[in-house]
Batch of 2 targets.
Target 1
Amino acid sequence: MQHQSAQLRRSVLYVPASNEKALAKSATLACDAVIYDLEDAVGPEEKLDARERLRDFLNGGDRPHCEIVVRINALDTIWGTEDFLAARAVKPDAILLPKVSGPRDVLDADAALDETDAPRNLKLWAMIETPRAVLNLGPIAQLGRDPAARLSCLVAGTNDLAKETGIALTEDRRYLAPFLFQIVMAARAGGISVLDGVSNDFRDLDAFESSCTEARSMGFDGKTLIHPAQIAKANAVFAPSPEAIAEAEAIVAAFADPENTGRGVISLNGRMVERLHLEMAQTLLERAGTIRLKESGETDR
Ligand SMILES: CC(C)(COP(=O)(O)OP(=O)(O)OC[C@H]1O[C@@H](n2cnc3c(N)ncnc32)[C@H](O)[C@@H]1OP(=O)(O)O)[C@@H](O)C(=O)NCCC(=O)NCCSC(=O)C[C@H](O)C(=O)O
Ligand SMILES: [Mg+2]
C-alpha cells in the first residue's frame, strides 16, 4: 500500500465565498485545490449572499481548472441543507463537511447525495476539528475503504480543535502534534488523503515553510492555506526534492540491473535497500512526473 494519493493536494486554498475579489483571484492561482468556504470565513449576515455569489461564480466563465471543493455549514445548522443543495448544484469535485463528530455525519451526507442522484465521482471530505472527531477517527477514516462511501480526504481543523480542547497553538505545535499524527494514521488506515491545518500568521512565510516541512515529515499530503502568498512554498515543500528524485532514480536503476534480478534486498551506497524502497521510489518518481506535467501546463491537476 502506498501512502500518498495520486491526486496532487500540496496546496489547498480556502477562499471565502463572500469575498468577490478573492473569488475572482482564485481562478488565477497555482494551488492544487481550492476550498470555497461558506462556513467560518463567512459571517452569519453574509451567509445567503455568499451562497449566491459562489453559485454565480462557479456557473460563470472563470471557474478554476484545479480541484474544486465547497465547504458547507454543518447539516444541523440553519444554513446546512441549502448550502448542501447549492454545493451539489455547482458540480464541485468534493463537498467538505465541517465539525464532523463521527461516521454517521459522513454517511448522512452520502445518503443525501445519493438521493439527488449525485455522480459517484462527487466525493466527501471531512474536517477533523472536534474532540469527538478525534476520538472517532478510526471509524470515520474506515469509510475510505467502503466502496459505497464517498469519503476521500481528512482535513485537520487546528483552530477549532484548539478552541474546543484548550490545546495551545504554539509556533512549534508541540501540544497539537499527537493529534495531528492520529489524523495522518487514520487517513492512511482508510486509504484516503490527509491535509494539515492552516497557518494563521500568513505574513510570516519562513514560519509557514517550517510548518509545511513539519507537516510533510508527519506524513500529510499537503497543507490547507488561507492566503495566495502561501501557495508557492507549499507547492515546493510538498514536491519531491531534487535529492530525493536522484535517490529514487538510483534505487530504480539498481533494481533494474540484471545482477539484481529476483533479489529482495540489495546494498546501495552503503545502505540496505529492499523492494519496499523500490515501490516508494517508483511512487515518488510518479508524483514528480505529475508535478512536472502540471507545472509545464500540460495538465490542470
Ligand atoms: C486573511 C485574510 C483576511 C487577509 O486578507 P487581506 O488583508 O485582504 O489580504 P491581502 O491584502 O494580502 O490580499 C492580497 C490579494 O489576495 C487576495 N486574497 C487574499 N486572500 C485570499 C484567498 N484566501 N483566496 C483568494 N484570494 C485571496 C486579496 O483579495 C487580494 O487580491 P487583489 O487585491 O486582487 O490582489 C484573507 O487572506 C482571507 O480571508 N483568507 C481566507 C480566510 C478563510 O478562508 N478562513 C476560513 C478557513 S480557515 C479555517 O477555518 C480552518 C479550520 O476550519 C480550522 O478550524 O482551523
Ligand atoms: Mg474550523
Target 2
Amino acid sequence: MPQDIQTDVAIIGAGTAGLFAMKQVRMAGKSVTMIDPGPLGTTCARVGCMPSKVALHAAHLWHQRQEMAEYGTQGIEQLSLDRDKAWARVSAMRDRFAGKTEENARKAMGENLLEGPARFVEPTVLEVELPGGERQVVRAQAVVIANGSRPVVPEWLEPMSDRVVTTDTLFDVKHIPDSVGVLGLGAIGLEMGLALSRLGVRVVGSDIARLPAGISDPELGQRVIEQFSAEFPLWLGESAELSKEEDGILMKTSQGQEKVDMILASLGRRPNTDTLNLAEAGFELDDKGQLRFDPATQQVQDFPVFVAGDVNGHRPLQHEAGDEGTIAGFNAARGITRFRRRTPLSIAFTHPDIAVIGERLEDMDPDEIVTGSADGSGNGRSVILGAQSNLIHLHADAKTGRLRGASLMATHGEHLAHLLAWAIQRGETAQDLLAMPFYHPVVEEILPDALQDIVSRLPETHDLPKGFRREE
Ligand SMILES: Cc1cc2nc3c(=O)[nH]c(=O)nc-3n(C[C@H](O)[C@H](O)[C@H](O)COP(=O)(O)OP(=O)(O)OC[C@H]3O[C@@H](n4cnc5c(N)ncnc54)[C@H](O)[C@@H]3O)c2cc1C
Ligand SMILES: NC(=O)c1ccc[n+]([C@@H]2O[C@H](COP(=O)([O-])OP(=O)(O)OC[C@H]3O[C@@H](n4cnc5c(N)ncnc54)[C@H](O)[C@@H]3O)[C@@H](O)[C@H]2O)c1
C-alpha cells in the first residue's frame, strides 16, 4: 500500500463542480488532490449540455426545410437526410468539446490527479482504488464532494437492456433506428425526443407526470403539450407498460401503443452519493439517502466537508455546478463564508424554448401575487416566426409589483429568460421594467404586454401613462 497522501483539500470528482472548486483552492495557495476514475471531460461536455444542443441544432436545420418550402424554395421533396451521418457529426462535435475539456482539465490537474474512485473512511480520510487495484489513502484538511449523478435505469428495464439507451450512451450510437420510445419527458426527454423526431425518427414519448418538462404552471403546461404533441405523441399521466418482442419493444398506455426499436430512458438522474460509503464514515443522511448541507456555504453538517454540483441534488444544472464548486472550494480552502445564490434559471432548448425563472408558481402564495400573461399571437415577430402559441407568465408581488418568478414557452426564450432572471435578481418591479426601451419588432415586445397586465392590477400609484416617468 502506498504511503498516505496528506493534502489541504481533496476533491472527489473532476467534473464542472470539482474543477471550479480546484481553481479556488489553488487561488488560496493550498495543496489539492483531485480524485476521479474517469471518463474525464465533464458530464456537460461529454454526454450532457453540449452534445444535446448539437443534436437539437442538427434537427433544427433539417426541420426548417418545411417552412422554406412555404416561402417558395423548390425541390425540398428531393432532399434526403443521412441520419447516421448527421449523428456522426453530433458525436464528432461532442468529441471536440469533451476532448478539449479533458485536455484542459488534465493540464490544470497535472500530478495532482488520482485516477480511481474515492470512498470515505472518515469525514476527512478517503480511500482511492488506483488503476492497478492498489488502495491509496488520502488524508485531507477539507474535502469537496463533487462526484455528480448518473441516469436512473430501473431494474424493470433490465430484460430489454440491449434496446435501452440513456444519454450516457446515446451520443455513441452509430445507427439511429427508425423508431424510439422516450421514457420520461423531463428536460432531457423532451429535448432529445424533439431532436430525434425532427431528424425523421418515429418518436413516442411517455411520462407518469401530467405535464412535461417539469412544468407546474397548468396553462403553460397545456400550451407545451399542444405545441409538441403536434410533433410526436406525448402519453402523459400514466406509466407505460413495456414488453420485449423479437423485433422491438412494445410500449403501451391507455392512450395508445407503439412498437419501437429503441428506448431512451430519460427518467431523471440520481446523485452518486451511494458510491461513497457515507453513512459508515459518519455522515448523517436524510430519508432519501442524501447529505444534509447548507446551500449558502455548501457545507455538510459541521464537517470541513462541502458538497457541490449534481451530487447534492439541489439545482442540477451546469452553471449551478460551477457556482457550487466555487463556493465549496473557496470555503474548503479559506473557512466559511455565506454566499448569496443567483436567481434560479432553467431553460429547455426545445424551440420554442421552455423556461422557468425565479420562484416557482407552486412555492408562492396565490393571494400574494398577481400574474401577467402575454401571448405570441399578439406579438408581430412571433407571428412571423410561426410562434403564435408562445406564452409567457410573469408573477409579481401583489402590493409592490416586484417581479418574483416567470415561466414561458417562447421562440428565443433562452434570451427572454435571461432578461427576466436578471430583472428578478435585481429586484425590479413591473412598473420599472415597463419604463425600459423595447425595439420593434422583436420577441421581447411580449414582455411589455405581460407587464402591462400586472401593472393594471396593482393599486394605482400615479396617473401618467404606464411605462412613463416624470423627468426628475
Ligand atoms: C443530456 C443532458 C443535457 C443537459 N443539458 C444541460 C443544459 O443544457 N444546461 C445545463 O445547465 N445543464 C444541463 N445538464 C446538466 C449538467 O450537465 C449537470 O448539471 C452538470 O454537468 C453537473 O456537473 P457536476 O460537476 O456536478 O458533475 P460531473 O460533470 O458529472 O462530474 C462528476 C465527476 O465525478 C466523477 N466521479 C463519479 N464517482 C466518483 C467517485 N466515487 N470518486 C471520484 N470521482 C467520481 C465522474 O467521473 C465525473 O468526472 C444536462 C445533463 C444531461 C445529462
Ligand atoms: N436544458 C437544460 O437545462 C437541461 C437539459 C437536460 C437536462 N438538464 C438537467 O438534467 C436533469 C435530469 O434531466 P431529466 O430530464 O432526466 O430528469 P427530470 O427529473 O427532469 O425528468 C424525469 C422525468 O421522468 C419522469 N418519470 C420518472 N419515472 C417515470 C416512469 N416510471 N415512467 C415514466 N416517466 C417517469 C418524471 O415524471 C420526469 O418528468 C434535469 O433535472 C436538469 O437539471 C437540463
